């Protein structure tokens, strides 16, 4: 099933069933997702990214170096000639803080998406992603979707969101 929302002369937001690591589009494709400040790369969507060992290697090297490793930053990793993974640093740690707040940070997601939009426009890339930050990061998908519309779609960047196919009983 495909759900498509057209924003006129701006970008297109499309929802499809499928695997975000197999992006459906011509041209350069960027797969965006959220990473954490703790150096963890072993749960959630990153498990699917392990098919490209350099995606994890670059993230862990970035974490160990701490160079520009702060909330709101991104790191691009070329994984194929026409595909990049974009690590968006928008999760503080691995779980809720002492007050029970989720580890995802809306302000960091917003900053990351602004940088992704700039990079996508420079390379004429389309964006592909799961419903990031709505799982382990504990954020609200409707709020993340609104940010995608504001920071990507309204800037003329096309985005495809992938939902895994429902298991048949």
Strand content: 25-35%
Number of domains: 1
The radius of gyration is 15 Å
Task: Write out the CATH superfamily name.
Answer: Leucine Aminopeptidase, subunit E, domain 1
CA(first)-CA(last) distance: 18 Å
Q: Let me know the average pLDDT.
A: 93
* Count of DSSP H/I helices: 4
Structural class label: alpha/beta
Shape: globular
For the record, the CATH class is: Alpha Beta
Strand order of the largest sheet: 1-2-7-6-3-5-4
| Largest sheet data | 7 strands, mixed
Multimer state: single chain
Q: Secondary-structure element order, as H and E?
A: EEEHHEEHEHE
Number of strands: 7
CATH architectural category: 3-Layer(aba) Sandwich
Reported by name, the CATH topology is: Leucine Aminopeptidase, subunit E, domain 1
Unreliable runs: none
**Percentage of residues in helical conformation:** 25-40%
Features:
26% strand; 27% helix; 7-stranded mixed sheet; Leucine Aminopeptidase, subunit E, domain 1; alpha/beta; 7 strands
Description:
This protein is an alpha/beta fold and 169 residues long. It has one domain (2-163): Leucine Aminopeptidase, subunit E, domain 1. It has helices at 46-49, 53-65, 106-123, 141-151, and strands at 2-6, 12-17, 29-36, 74-80, 83-91, 126-129, 159-163. Helix 4 links the parallel strand 6 (126-129) and strand 7. The longest helix is centred in the last third of the chain and has 18 residues, at 106-123. The radius of gyration is 15 Å and the shape is globular. The model has no long low-confidence stretch (mean pLDDT 93).
């Amino acid at each position: 099933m495909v759900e498509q929302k057209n924003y006129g002369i701006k970008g297109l937001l499309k929802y499809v069933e499928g695997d975000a690591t197999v992006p459906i589009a011509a041209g350069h494709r960027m797969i965006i997702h959220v990473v954490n400040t703790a150096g963890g790369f072993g749960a959630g969507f990153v498990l699917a990214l392990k098919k490209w060992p350099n995606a994890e290697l670059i993230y862990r090297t970035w974490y160990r170096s701490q160079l520009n490793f702060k909330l709101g930053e991104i790191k691009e990793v070329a994984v194929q000639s026409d595909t990049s993974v974009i690590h968006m640093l928008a999760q503080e740690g691995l779980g809720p803080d002492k007050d029970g707040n989720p580890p995802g940070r809306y302000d960091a997601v917003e900053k990351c998406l602004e940088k992704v939009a700039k990079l996508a426009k420079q390379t004429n890339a389309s964006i592909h992603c799961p419903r990031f930050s709505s799982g382990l990061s504990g954020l609200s998908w409707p709020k993340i979707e609104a940010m995608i519309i504001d920071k990507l779609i309204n800037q003329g960047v096309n985005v495809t969101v992938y939902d895994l196919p429902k298991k048949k009983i």
